[in-house]
Amino acid sequence: MIIREATAQDLEILLTFEQGIVSAERPFNSTLIDGEIHYYDLNQFIQSPDATLIVVEDNNELIASGYGLIKKSEKDYYNFEVYAYLGFMFVKPEYRGKGVNKLITDELIRWAKSRGISEIRLDVYARNEAAIKAYEKAGFEPLLLTMRLKS
Asked: In this protein, which residues make up the domain named N-acetyltransferase (predicted)?
C-alpha cells in the first residue's frame, strides 16, 4: 500500500468516497437532507498550504482517503491557537478491518506534528461505536458530545 497526497486527477474517485461517507453517516444523523450531499471542498484541500488530502493506493487503485486541515482555535481561552482537524476518513468496504484507517490517521498526525501542531481533533457520531473504538485505539479520547432536541 502506498500513501500519497491526492491530486486533481483523483477527484472523481474521491467524490465517490464522499458519497460513501454520506451513506455511512445517514443512519447516525436524521437531519441530513435526501439526495447527494457534498461535505467538502476537496479541490481546496488539494491546493491549500494549510491542508493535506491524502489517499491510500493498493495495486494502483485508490482505496482510502483522509484530510488534515489547520484551523484557528474558536475560543480565546483554549491553551492552543491552532489545531489540526482531521476528516474525510474513508476506506473502501473490502479493505476495512485491515489497519488502513490507522495508516491514514498516523500519517495525518505526523503531518500535523511536522507543522508544530500538538492539538489534533476530529468528529465522530456518538453512536458510531466502530469508529470511536478505532480513534481511541489511535490515541484520541472523547471531549464533547453535542446533544439535540427536535421539537
From this structure: 1-151
CATH superfamily of 2-137: Gcn5-related N-acetyltransferase (GNAT) (3.40.630.30)
Task: Please give the pLDDT value at position 19.
Answer: 95
For residue 26, the 8-state DSSP code is: G
- Phi-psi region at 70: left, alpha or beta (left = phi > 0; alpha = psi -120 to 50): beta
Q: What angle do CA 96, 100, 103 make, to 5 degrees?
A: 160
Q: How many CA atoms lie within 13 A of 116 on its CB side?
A: 3
Of 56 and 148, more confident: 56
- Amino acid found at 85: Y
Cα distances (angstroms) measured from residue 12 to each of 8, 17, 60, 63, 122 = 9, 9, 15, 13, 24
pLDDT digits (tens, 9 = 90+) for 38-85: 999 999 999 999 999 999 999 999 999 999 999 999 888 888 899 999
Q: Record the pTM.
A: 0.91
Q: Give residue 43's Cα distance to chain centre.
A: 15
